[in-house]
Amino acid sequence: MKAFMSRGTIHFLESLEKKHTNIDFYFIASNDGGIAYYENSSKNIFSSGQSFDVLKSVGELSKEGYVVMNHLPISEDSSSTFEYRMKHSDSGIEEMEGFQAWRFLRQEKTSKYVVLTQWRSFSDFENWKNSDQFKKAHDTQKAKQPSYFMERPFVISGHMHEKDE
User: Is-contact 1 108, C-beta < 8 A?
Assistant: First the structure.
């Protein structure tokens, strides 16, 4: 499966739904603006956006909730180890109150990854961050960090955008 993501104003991104009625878009409102996200097996409809391979998928995305996307550049020599650990990890996240979905994405033709989690609410995400399961899940991640970052890891978070009817 593939995933596709693009940034822009929510108004512009929502206009894509009128042109592409066969795509189930998810719109995220963050401090940086809007993000449109969708998953399927067809090609990217965004003229400027990112394409990802979905390496692992847990749960179902919802049109409501709170989303956190950890963008992680991993060194080429560590990417296979990092992928293996992420695909085979048992963090217990799906047992947490308010958990909705988790995606492990690799940007096509790069060793840049996105770990996307979706929660019913911000407080459910905070409960996850303060849980023993979170500490255990993040304690074992020992993928080698690149000696030089062309790009720093970063986090984007926001709420699912509720469309004006």
Answer: no
